[in-house]
Amino acid sequence: MEKNQKVQTKLPFGKVIRRHWLLLLMLLPSLLYVIIFSYLPMTGIVLAFKQYNYNGGIYFSPWNGLTNFKALMISGKLGMVTRNTLLYNIGFIFLGVIFEMGSAILINELISKVFKKVSQSLMFLPYFISWVVAGAIMYNIFNYEKGVFNHVLVMLGASPFDLYNTPGAWPFVIIALKLWKQTGYGSVVYLAAITGLDQEMFEAASIDGASAWQKIRYLTIPSLIPTMMILVLLGIGNIFRGDFGLFYQTVRSSALLQPATDIIDTYVFRLLIDNGNIGVSAAASLYQSVLCFVTITIANKLVKKANPDYALY
Amino acid sequence: MSAITRKQTINHRPLGKDELSINIVGILLIGLFALICVLPFYLIIIASFTAETSLIRNGYPLLPNLADFSLDSYKLSLKNPVAILTSYGVTIGVTALGTFCAVLLSTMTGYVLSRKDFPWRNKFSFFYFFTTLFNGGLVPWYLLCVRYLNFKNSIAGLLLPLMFSVWNMIIAKSFMLGLPMEITESAKIDGANDLVIFVKLILPLSKPLIATLALFSALAYWNDWYNCMLYITNENLFTLQYYLQRILGSAEAMRIVAEKSGIALPSIPIESMKMSMTVIATGPIVLLYPFVQRYFVKGLTIGAVKG
User: Fold this and answer.
1) What residues in B contact A250, CB-CB < 8 Å?
2) Which chain B residues are closer than 8 Å to A193 by Cβ?
3) Which of B57, B84, B126, B149 is the most exposed place for a label (fewest CB within 10 A)?
4) What does the pLDDT read at residue B263?
């Protein structure tokens, strides 16, 4: 990207505007959008260092130094929600790669066209629903008195299981729910990459006597590494950012489950909406933004050093 | 004719042991996963058709039981459908308008940034991309929307937050980088301006892209409850998903249903209504998928994810 820029002959500012005014005009709506909804809020991070009051608003409320951050520390929850966010995302990334890449590879090998198409469509279904509907599904299955899961447990002679009183089970449930919802979509990304691979390579391997399993092991998987690297890198960039809907709609406001399910996003949301504590929630949300920015910058630098082709930018 | 020959070639090709084992493993694993993917939908649908008395006595059913078949929950939903129809109207309107604007914005921006003769394209690209690396977080954004943009109880609060996504723009940009440069060049020689080229030449060539982006945006708008929860308190502006979210919280649901239908609280089939509302709120968007499926893989290539 940067190299191209240097090769291009530099045109004077006015000449570019005169020659490309229509292109710039076409850019204008989205440019305004990004300035208003992304860059303007960035200036709002000053709130983390202010004692917010309604009259002063974002920019004219009085400064209060690090008071908000101190309050955040004293609450003692920051470590817990950071740990939860991080661990859940590591689980999502790691198992996500296995499930998505695995199912893409298997689907690609299937000979029955009908089975391929039907199973792919079915796997895509969960991607289409909102987290609210996913919450309704959780209710249908795991409700203590009426849920199907306990129905089956009792039928099998086991005692019913109260998920909403068992914080320890939630990491598994949340990760399973996420995989259930994302795998169909994620596998399409890998499948698109597989269809773009050089078919002659596979034919040559067949002629040399490679088995189908060997072709997967030595050809397909290594060729998918670039795709995987980009997706993993994107995941790492957001490793301190949780899927708010997933946690909010399934856990709801259960204090008992919080130690196992509270993430930075739900914590910030509660501070802001339920407690109306704007200064402290701004501090928590700045903490999250900075963590994200630092991780993605470092991760991208490391990847760029190892292999520039895999870097995001 | 061609179908027959194709079948014959498949039959004639000997299936190796390795291919056979892969297919068995594949059919088992993929089949199992696909089943797990539909199972909850099946459970919700049969529960929505089950009589309330049975749900309270036996819980949500695993298998359909004809003796307990009931349309009560749907009847009640449709008997006094003001709330549902209103939120359907809001959701459809917001989805249609929002998707149109979102696709236009991302393709138009993507096209400009894909133009190799535009000298500032890398600088602008990074200006957009940077917003995915760093953002101000929820709090300043929320205050901006509520205090300065007046999103409270305004349709803008449902429309604008989802209208532009840098990721969709990047998908559009890399799709358009794949279109031949000569299209733009020769049209320019013929005297067409950039906007005409974009609308008359580029967009018609970008159908897979448009289908993919429209699907993403339509899903985001249809499934939105978050912005509605943040900005809307007026029941006439509730989106379907937010309405469903309220129904799922039982106490709230009873109040809404009783208010809208005039039926006494205890006789409302609340458990089956939760399920039928879920079906009603999900239905149409799932039906959209078959129409865009054939474009999907073409529109979404992995190069697309890269800035």
Assistant:
1) none
2) 301-302
3) B57
4) 66
Closest Cα in chain B, distance from residue A260 (Å):
22
Same domain, A121 and A212: yes
Band (pLDDT 50/70/90 cuts) for residue B265 is low
Give the residue from A129, A229, A266 with the most B CB atoms within 10 Å of its CB, the best one to mutate.
Answer: A129
Assess whether B100 and B15 both reside in one domain. no
For residue A226, what pLDDT is reported? 86
Tokens of residue A156, six digits: 């099998």
Q: How many CB atoms lie within 10 A of CB B40?
A: 23
Predicted pLDDT at A301: 92
The residue from B47, B71, B95 where one domain ends is B71
- Alpha-carbon distances of B277 from B47, B280, B282, rounded to whole Å: 11, 5, 8
Closest CA to A81 of A226, A268, A255: A268
Indicate yes or no: CB of A227 within 8 angstroms of CB of B302. Answer: yes
More confident residue, B288 or A169: A169
* B22/A4 CB distance under 8 A: no
Looking at the fold, whether A80 and A229 belong to one and the same domain comes out as yes
Q: Based on the domain organization, do A16 and A140 belong to the same domain? A: no
ipTM of the complex as predicted: 0.90
Query: Looking at chain B, which residue has its C-alpha nearest residue A130?
Result: B223
Do B138 and B286 have their domain in common?
yes
Which residues, other chains included, contact B288 with Cβ-Cβ below 8 Å and sequence gap of 6+? A128, B215, B218
Are B215 and B289 found together in one domain?
Answer: yes
Q: What is the band of B303 on the pLDDT scale with cuts at 50, 70, 90?
A: very low
A52 and A79 assigned to the same domain:
no
Q: Say which of A44, A109, A213 has its CB closest to residue B143.
A: A44
What are the b/e assignments for B129-167, b being 16+ CB within 10 Å?
bbbbbbbbbbbbbbbbbeeebebeebbebbbbbbbbbbe
Nearest C-alpha in B relative to A108: B26
Alpha-carbon gap: B263 to the closest alpha carbon of chain A (Å):
24
Q: What is the pLDDT of residue B299?
A: 64
Task: Say if residue A13 is in the same domain as residue A96.
Answer: no
Domain that holds residue A20: 2-60
pLDDT digits (tens, 9 = 90+) for A224-236: 998 898 889 889 9
User: Among residues of chain B, what percentage have pLDDT more than 90?
Assistant: 47
Low-confidence ranges of chain A (pLDDT < 50): 1-7
- HSE, CB side, 13 Å, CA atoms: give it for residue B38: 13
Interface test with A, best of B30, B107, B176 (most A CBs within 10 A): B30
Determine contact, residues A16/A250, Cβ cutoff 8 Å: no
Contact A34 B164 (CB under 8 A): yes
Cα distances from A17 to residues A14, A21, A23, A198, B107, in angstroms, run 5, 5, 9, 43, 21
CA distance B43 to chain A (A): 8
Chain A residue with CA closest to B217: the answer is A128
Chain B residues touching residue A31 (CB < 8 angstroms) = 124, 127
